[in-house]
Amino acid sequence: MPGNKKGYSKLATEEIELDQLGSHSIEAGHGAGDAQRVPVQFEPGHGTQSMTSFLGQVAPSLLVAGSGMVGAGMLLDIVQHWQLFIEVSELMILVPALLGLKGNLEMTFASRLSTASNLGHMDTPQKRNDLIVANLLLMQVLAVVMGLFAALLSILLGVIFHHEFSWPHFGLIVASTVTTVSVASGLLGALMSGLVVLSSYLKINPDNIAAPIAAMLGDLATLAIFCGVGQMIFTSQSQKWMSPVISLVFIFGVLPVSYWLVRHNASALEVLHAKWSWFSIIIALCVSTMAGLILERFVSEFQGQAVLEPMMNGIGGNLAAILATRVATSLHTKVKEPFGRITFALGVMLFPISMVFLTVIGALHFGHTSLTVQFFTGYFAAASFQIVVLLSVTRKLVVFIWNCKLDPDNVAIPFVTAMGDLVGTAALTAAFVVLKRIGDGDDDVGD
After folding, report:
1. Which one of 99, 177, 188, 293 is at 20 to 30 Å from 286 when CA atoms are compared?
2. What is the DSSP letter of 445?
3. 314 exposed, middle or buried (CB, 10 Å; 0-12, 13-18, 19+)?
4. What is the pLDDT of residues 142-193, one digit of tens each?
5. Rounded to an integer, what distance in angstroms lies between the CA atom of residue 154 and that of residue 148?
6. 249, 287, 316 from 290: Cα distances, Å
């Protein structure tokens, strides 16, 4: 088509010129790599959002999301001392992986619905209901399969690093994990569907609020279900038969039924059969598990790390997820936006939002943490490093995925959230190590 560029020029400092990012689109927002591509005619300026409106929508949603992350951190700060987590150390390895898997599923789900809403594919009740139901069933299939994979991976790592294996612990880990991801995905998916529909009705861009709200609800709910189910099985006199029965119900009941129903929806089935969708989640899960290994290794030494881990990784992951969904939507809708300014605004928002929640944590005396000058310096150095890496990589990653003729809504967010988990956990651990060496002798750094 006349005017289309054959090559891709360097991204501008202030704006991503979307007509230089690719000459294809993914039709109807359904494609996951094999959908029909149609030529793109970008419409600069049409439909773009003012920076004031953008910040006005993002800031409140991040504050709400942060409250859930802080709640998850406080819960983790409590349960790390439970006999369950002391005896079954693989559960601590699973925490970042489970929270990351929640992000991979719920936030990708929210991103797909947000893009579909912006493209007008949810304007009629019939189309909206079909799309939501298909994606909810799709999430169940992904949740049970990847939950089982995460459980087996954590058990394998436990054997490798601790040289221990127990069949009762094996059953407990598998049952707790598949129950958590299935129940959490169903509940949160339904809530996210309502949020996207409400956002469209109120003329709010769901890209700005769907991912953070998914994180807020997901972190706390996922961790609470995980701890509750694990504790119930751990303390039960019927643990020997309870774990296998629970696992069988989800693996041989919920999974095949959900898959059979998904097969009747072409768009959901396409995502399910797209190898890149599975590959991205598997790689993300493995990366998040590496973050879990770091947490399991140092959480007993640096007890304050448990309360900060979900908050730091959650805020960074949410900011990057917002950027990823905005870039993906712009590519789908063919509208240029000032992503240089958006990236800068998202990066700056890290500091006031983090300060609010650090103050709350200190005021409630959670995490064995005193808010010293040294602590703030170490924490914000780690958080700044994480957010710079995430925002820098996210833009390039979404563009790269798009130019590979894959749908960023299905592929980008798992990579982004997993990278945030690993970089954030490693940076936070390094900050605690440095603080301890320079003499910050509070409980938060292992005194």
Report:
1. 188
2. G
3. buried
4. 899 999 999 999 999 888 888 888 888 999 999 999 999 999 888 888 888 8
5. 10
6. 29, 5, 18
